[in-house]
Design brief:
It is globular and about 55 Å long. It is built from 12 helices and 15 strands.
């Protein structure tokens, strides 16, 4: 509507760039050169044809596009392209192939996925990922499609969280292996459990989609974390659904449980305690070097496997809220303040030793002292809140 009004006023010569008004032509800085700057063909004026008055004879959509803000137009077109690349198949299969596989493109990686044969509750499947190595095992246990994983019956490992207008729950499944033994798998399912991101600022996206992308990211950076086996998202009855299946960290236990057992018989040997602190600091530093801010770095989200006669191995879990940041100090202060605030068995000397191992220093430098003050200040503020 605005474009039509503007076109009418321009044709009447009452507004618009000076080059379009009678008696004024093509001065520097006028709108006569604006279409060419934003990639549109130059406006055709009557001064270039049969009249000297200089009124515009361009189509209405050229006139409207000429007076738009170039940045806003590029931003909107970028949003459309991003949504198109994310939810539309990259290539349509032919009828002869039976539409068994569809290639979906993700912002971080591209992979081939298997389209589900039927959508749950007349839903629409948007994305699906299955680990190539574990595909036969999942299909043998009726977990090879989104529908089968959604209706799979298993006891809740944790009670479902009812928040954000939906729910999210976790189940533990023991899958028998062909060579013997079993494989522990955590099956996470959610419905209408969205998280707003810069890609989807209004409607949001399933929080498991964010966790799946982060698991793939840290796996590419060799950060110890659970291995994703299955991921799928769909829309059923107007409600978005998400499924994430990860491999269990066999033999690992939460850090707070390990510390509680370590202090069960009094203060443990200093060398044993510092060995654990050194391994935990190395993992957190490796995570931050990959530009990942965990945003929920509690001791229960750091898992430790400490066999007798071996050094402890540490891994990180629950990357649902994680995101990448460019400023290293932000990652350090945010995560370490959370970790220090909930580490009940760490003394002041333990916290100082952990910080020195994290920074790779023998003693505190002026910058390390300032960083330490920021961490303590944030931890105390959160404790008061």
């Amino acid at each position: 509507m605005v474009g039509h009004r503007l076109a009418g006023r321009l044709q009447a010569g009452r507004c618009g760039p000076r080059s379009a008004r009678p008696g004024r032509r093509g001065t520097r800085g006028s709108g006569h050169h604006l279409p060419r700057r934003i990639g549109l063909p130059p406006l055709i004026t009557s001064s270039q044809h049969d009249s000297h008055c200089g009124r515009l004879r361009a189509p209405d959509f050229f006139v409207a596009a000429a007076f738009r803000k170039p940045r806003l137009t590029a931003y909107r077109s970028g949003q459309v392209r991003a949504r198109f690349r994310r939810f539309v198949p990259a290539a349509r299969p032919s009828a002869a192939s039976g539409a068994s596989k569809v290639g979906f493109r993700d912002n971080s990686t591209s992979f081939q996925v298997s389209a589900p044969q039927r959508a749950p509750c007349k839903g629409i499947s948007l994305a699906l990922f299955i680990s190539p190595e574990r595909r036969p095992l999942l299909e043998a246990n009726h977990l090879g499609s989104f529908d089968d994983a959604w209706v799979f019956k298993a006891a809740w490992f944790e009670e479902p969280n009812a928040r954000r207008g939906g729910w999210s729950g976790v189940c533990r499944i023991a899958l028998p292996l062909p060579e013997g033994g079993e494989l522990g798998v955590f099956l996470k399912r959610q419905e209408n459990h969205q998280r707003r991101t810069w890609r989807h600022p209004i409607a949001g996206e399933p929080s498991f989609a964010c966790e799946f992308r982060m698991l793939r990211y840290v796996e590419a950076h060799d950060v110890p974390a659970p291995r994703p086996l299955f991921f799928g998202s769909a829309v059923a009855d107007g409600k978005p659904r998400g499924i994430l299946m990860t491999q269990e960290l066999a033999g690992y236990r939460p850090l707070d449980v390990v510390m509680r057992e370590l202090f069960a018989d009094g203060c443990p040997p200093l060398a044993r305690k510092r060995l654990l602190l050194r391994k935990v600091a190395a993992l957190v530093r490796q995570l931050h070097d990959a530009r990942v801010m965990h945003r929920s770095l509690y001791p229960k989200h750091l898992f430790v496997r400490w066999d007798s006669g071996a050094e402890p191995e540490v891994a990180v879990i629950d990357l649902e809220k994680s995101r990448t940041t460019l400023i290293a100090a932000v990652r350090t202060v945010y995560d370490l303040a959370t970790l220090m605030r909930h580490s009940d068995y760490w003394s002041r000397s333990d916290r100082l030793y952990f910080l020195l191992q994290y920074l790779g220093l023998q003693r505190l430098t002026p910058w390390a002292r300032r960083l330490c003050r920021w961490i303590v200040k944030r931890a105390q503020r959160k404790r008061r809140d």
